[in-house]
Amino acid sequence: MNDLPENHGRPGNSGTVLEPGIHYVCQRCTACCKWPGDVRLEAEEIPMIASFLGMAEADFLDHFTRLRTNRQGLSLIEKANHECIMLDGKDCRIHPVKPAQCGGFPNQWNFPGWRQVCEAVPVAITPSQKLKRS
Questions:
Q1: How far apart are CA 83 and CA 37, in angstroms?
Q2: Angle in degrees, CA 15, 19, 23, rounded to 5
Q3: Element spanning 133, H or E
Q4: Nearest-CA neighbor of 37 among 17, 8, 7, 4?
Q5: Cβ neighbours around 76 below 10 Å, total
Q6: By the 8 A CB rule, do 23 and 134 touch?
Q7: Per-residue pLDDT in tens (0 to 9) along the chain, 134 residues
Q8: Which terminus of the chain faces fewer neighbouring Cβ atoms within 10 Å, N or C?
Q9: Strands 40-41 and 22-25
Q10: Cα-flanking dihedrals φ and ψ of residue 74, to 5°?
Q11: What is the DSSP-derived secondary structure letter of residue 5?
């Protein structure tokens, strides 16, 4: 019997694969967008998102970001119901330039119980397919 907790990774794990041989294909169900917590922003993502929104970087930072929980960077703010501020119904306002954390779900990070709420489809991949995707 395995007494170790399930590995859920961390949002910053850009090089991590939680289930080798399986790639989950996002169905844009928005379950990850509704999970409470930080949506970390990397410094290089800020100008791209601000530009996409047609805003000055300073305005974007003032209106849409906060200090991350660990106080080591910025996060997008949440709505009162814990949804991401960029979620508009079932659409992401910044999908073409979304943060890397968002693109990494659920393959590089996830949360306890994610399989019960996420509609991502598991697809078996071979080692050669892994090389092509990188």
A1: 9
A2: 85
A3: helix 127-133
A4: 8
A5: 22
A6: no
A7: 333 345 555 555 556 667 888 999 999 999 999 988 899 999 999 999 999 999 999 999 999 999 999 999 999 999 999 999 999 999 999 999 999 999 988 988 888 888 899 999 999 987 666 544 43
A8: N
A9: unpaired
A10: -110, 155
A11: P
Note the residue count of the chain: 134
Structure token pair of residue 101: 């954390």
Residue found under tokens 């999970």: 35
Residue with tokens 């508009």: 88
Q: Which two tokens stand for residue 15?
A: 């090089």
Look at the pTM and tell me if it is higher than 0.90.
no
**Residue type (1 letter), 70:** N
φ and ψ at 77, to 5 degrees? -75, 165
